[in-house]
Amino acid sequence: MNTLALVSGCLSIALGAWLGQRLFFSASQQYRKNLTEQTRSELSDLFVFIDLTHLWPVLVCVSVGTSVLLWLLIESILFAVCVGGVSFILPRMMLSRAVRKRQQRFDAQLPDLLLSLSGALRAGAGLAVALKYIVQESSAPLSQELGLVLREQRMGVGFTQALANLYQRMPSESVELVTTMLTVGTCSGASLADLLERLCTNLRARQHLERKIEVMTTQGKMQAWIMGALPLVLLLVLSQIDPLSVHLLHSSALGQAVLGTLFILECLGVYFLRRILAIHV
User: Fold this and answer.
1) Low-confidence winner among 4-8, 161-165, 184-188, 215-219 (lowest mean pLDDT)
2) Among candidates 133, 164, 136, 139, which has minimal Cα distance to 149?
3) Beta strand segments in 147-214, E
4) Are residues 242 and 252 in contact, defined by beta-carbon separation less than 8 angstroms?
5) Which of 57, 131, 233, 276 has its CA 20 to 30 Å from the CA of residue 216?
6) pLDDT at residue number 280
7) Which stretch of DSSP H or E encloses residue 23?
8) What is the pTM of this model?
9) pLDDT one-digit tens code per residue, 20-74
10) CA-to-CA distance for 236 and 229, rounded, in angstroms?
11) Is the C-alpha dihedral spanning 264, 269, 274, 280 positive or negative?
12) What DSSP element (H or E) covers 29?
């Protein structure tokens, strides 16, 4: 009877381990596929085209290597695993931040684009000729995106569809206003130069208001960084003042639980501060 129970227990454990391994492998493959596709899409938005075949192995090696190194240095498995997880998602966060910065630079260039386009139309130039001239004189990312619009037109894509593709690559309210204005203006035959000038004035006023709001929330941003870095700074100071007590945080189970709680609270603090201040810290 005892032998039968032991065999049944071993089979249950083996079956559970096999199912867990299959589920983990399936989930990791799906996450790897989604990560590669999202990274390739964001890199293409930045006009960076590289082979991402080795992206997943590199991220795994960096994460595991960081975790093992920290575990050997401070002998805290929980802290090492947390830092390894952060190092795994950090490149993805940096790439998303770069895409947002590029979107902001593109939006900042739109008023100058509208003003130049309006002047060229008043001088008698056609819309395609004016866009071609602006592409040659502008800097990235405006020149890259408008150059892609012109290349799509040369390949037979309609102007309306090319503008829709531009909005898909740069999904912001300012880009939506500009693409809608160009589409309606070219289809209705209205005075497009006057419409572009009024839209330019509105966009400049809006950007001025956004910069004013950003300046007014600078204090909140600085407080967020200070409050977030304060526990880590205190931990470093205490490690110099009382190394034995800090060592207990890394070596004991209770200390590791405290570090894990600190890490979770730090993540929650960053999340809620981003929600409250509507910023990307």
Assistant:
1) 4-8
2) 164
3) none
4) no
5) 233
6) 44
7) helix 2-45
8) 0.70
9) 777 767 777 777 787 778 777 777 766 776 777 777 777 778 778 877 787 777 7
10) 11
11) negative
12) helix 2-45
